[in-house]
Each structure stands twice: as C-alpha cells, then as structure tokens.
Specification:
By secondary structure, this protein is mostly helical. 75% of the residues lie in helices and 0% in strands.
C-alpha cells in the first residue's frame, strides 16, 4: 500500500531533462550579472566565461557520474545518505532545502522587479503570487511543468540568439581594447562571479526517478545543459562587449538591454527585457520542481514526516512536498528584499557541490564500477574551486550559514526521534 503512495511516474524525456537543467542555468544571471563581471575583468570577461564554465564542468562531471549510479529522487541528498551516513544525508538535504527556498524567493523578487519595468506592480506581492502560481503548476504534473519550462527555454534561447544577431553588425573592435585592464586577476574575479550563473545544472539529478532511462539521460542532460549554456554565454558576452564597450557595460544593471539601446532598436530593447522576465520565470519553475523533491526523498528515508511522501492520485506528483516548499517560498518572498540573503543560498549550494565532488571521489576509492569513467582529478579540482568560491563570500554569510548548520544539527535528533517513535 505504501508503494502506491510513493511511486513516481517516469514521464520526462532527455529533451525535458536537458531543458530543465538549461532552464535552471540560464536565468536573470546572464541578463544582469554580466555587467558585474565586466567591471572586474573588462573585455577579458570572455575568458571569465570560459574559466567559470570549466570550473562548473568539474562538478558537473561528479553529478553526472553519481546520477548514473544512484538515479534517485533528491540527487545530492541520496548520494550523501548512501555513500556516507544518514546524518550526513540529512544535513545535505537540510542545506539544499534551505538554499532552494531562499533562492526561489530571491528569483521571484527578481521576476517581479523586471515586470515592474513594464507595469507598476507591488513587487513583493507579485513575487509571492508568482511562487504560488508556479507551485500549483508543479502540483498539476511534472510533465505539465516541463512543457511550460520547455516553451520558456525555447523563447529565451531565441531572445539570446536574437541579441547576438542584432548586435553582430554593431561591434566595434576598439571596444575590446585594452583586453585585460585589471590583469589576469580581474579575469579570475570575473570568473568567480560568472560561476554563479552556471549553478542549476544539478537540479536535474533531484528529479532522477521521473526521467525515462535515468542512468543514461540524467548525466547526459546535465552535461548538455551546461555545454549549451557555456556556448551561449560566450556568444552573448562577446557581442555585449563588442557593442557596448566594457566601460559602459560595467556600470549597467541591465547590460543586454543597454547594449540594444546603443543600436537604437527599440523593439530589440523590449524583446531582450521580456526575455529576462521569461528567463527568471523558468528558473523559478525549476527551483520549485527540484527543491520539492528533496524533502520527499528525505521523508522516504524517515528523516522528514511521512505525509510528505504522498503522491497525488491524479497528477502523480508529491503534492504535499511541493505545496509546503512553495508556501514557505511565497511567504519569504512577501516579507521583503533578499539580496543579502541570496549569497547565503549560493553558499548552501556551493557547499553541497563540495560534498558531491567528495562523494564521487569516495565512490571511486570504494571500487565502484562507474558507467561513466571518472578520473580523480576533476572532482578534486571541483572541491578546490568551490572551496575558493565559498571563501570569497562575505563573513556575514559564514555566520548565517553556521546558524543554519547548527539548527540542522539540533533538529536532526528531534525529527528522527519523533518519526521513529511513531513507526
């Protein structure tokens, strides 16, 4: 009888899974963060894009390998649970749930902020409403969510290709000089910023049990999503620098839209700005999708209340887990500005990435016969690069993160004890 309530439907194809990964990666980041990275690297931001993508690939390889061996819902949570211990698994899930909720709330505020450029709307109210709308969409079915995400992904890819096509004829070679105004150290600093625009490829791993032939399709979709994103980021950054010049780009809060303003094409400015809204909405959909599967997986292992494992008989989704994640996300979005807290979400995700890389190394040492061969160097580089990025964050982030960790450690014996007493 229990199996009836916890059996997920494998309805996602390779295209759906790749689109979910792509939707999670290409969001408002490329529409906004490029300006910040350019202020550090100058035209050398093109190298920053390549370096940031290479660093992301190290960790993506570990995700790909582990997802082919442990194709279970919850992704990194299950890797830690099976390869280390239930406690390590719980703490990994705890950090992931916290990070995804904060990230979703932050993304929803970004979505409402973009929308306010077109229509005067109350930002926090719209952000909370967006969380609820996409939560309900996720409840209606993973395939339905994937279809909406696929349409949004197709649109934002077309917008970015439109940006490249329009901007190509306005490139000034003088805008690339000097190429490294802040030296190679500026390129590295820019790469650290750009790396955050690549986060999200691991979200596919969290829904492994809903993907057809997950042992093959999940790792392939992770690498495809990241690879395509890298190419698009490279094209977009080259055109943006060539059209605007790094001086103008580095002080812009909407670099792609401002680059289109230089062309004098009002329609292009509108299309690119609309693309930013759709891109942000796509990230929000995938954040709720992936984030809701972690408590579902934890509940199956009796680390969260059992009612979170329930599957809707009509929609085939873990609806209680989705609703709880979405409601908390919506409430957080309604409360206020989250820019400072957003870096805490990034820290949570980076720390989980460190653990995923280490898990790949441990599994390799234990003699696991990987379907995908893995040399120990990539996960080692993944650990080092993620650790350096974590160290680059502000001290306040470490303080908040420590509080979250201590709360998880204190909560673990309470929640598991109560669940055991009810069994």
């Amino acid at each position: 009888m229990q199996e009836k309530h916890t059996k997920l439907i494998k309805s996602l194809t390779l295209l759906d899974a790749t689109s979910i990964g792509f939707g999670a990666i290409i969001g408002a980041g490329i529409f906004v963060i490029l300006g910040v990275a350019t202020s550090l690297a100058g035209p050398g931001v093109i190298l920053s894009v390549i370096i940031g993508g290479a660093v992301a690939i190290f960790t993506a390889l570990s995700f790909a390998v582990l997802s082919s061996e442990i194709p279970k819902e919850g992704g990194p949570y299950e890797y830690a649970y099976e390869l280390f211990s239930p406690f390590t698994g719980f703490m990994t899930g705890w950090m992931l749930v916290f990070g995804q909720i904060v990230m979703g709330a932050t993304v929803s505020i970004g979505l409402a902020t973009y929308l306010a450029l077109f229509i005067p709307v109350p930002i926090n109210l719209v952000a909370a409403g967006a969380c609820l709308v996409f939560t309900l969409l996720n409840v209606l079915g993973v395939k339905e969510s994937a279809r909406v995400n696929n349409a949004m992904v197709a649109f934002k890819v077309l917008v970015l290709l439109f940006f490249v096509a329009v901007g190509a004829s306005y490139i000034q070679t003088s805008n690339f000089q000097p190429f490294l105004p802040n030296g190679f150290s500026g390129v590295i600093s820019g790469a650290a910023i750009i790396f955050f625009a690549y986060l999200g490829f691991g979200r596919v791993a969290a829904i492994s049990e809903e993907v057809k032939d997950p042992e093959k399709n999940v790792p392939l979709s992770i690498m495809l999503a990241l690879g395509i994103s890298l190419v698009i980021y490279l094209l977009v950054s080259f055109i943006a620098i060539g059209v605007s010049g790094y001086g103008r780009l580095s002080v812009s809060g909407s670099p792609l839209a401002d680059a289109m303003r230089i062309t004098g094409n009002g329609l292009a400015v509108f299309v690119v700005s609309l693309g930013a809204i759709v891109a942000t909405a796509s990230v929000l959909i995938t954040t709720i999708l992936g984030g809701s599967r972690i408590p579902f997986a934890m509940a199956r292992n009796k680390q969260f209340p059992g009612f979170m494992t329930r599957i809707h008989p009509g929609f085939g989704t873990p609806y209680i887990s989705i609703l709880l994640i979405g409601l908390v996300m919506s409430a957080l979005a309604f409360l206020g500005e989250l820019k400072q807290v957003a870096s805490v979400a990034s820290f949570s995700i980076i720390s989980v990435h460190v653990l995923v890389n280490y898990a790949a190394m441990v599994a390799s040492r234990k003699g696991a016969k990987f379907r995908i061969p893995l040399h120990p160097i990539p996960p080692l580089l993944g650990i080092a690069s993620c650790a350096l990025l974590a160290l680059s964050l502000l001290p306040e982030v470490w303080i908040v993160e420590s509080i979250v960790l201590v709360a998880g450690i204190a909560f673990y014996p309470i929640i598991t004890g109560r669940i055991k007493s009810m069994v």
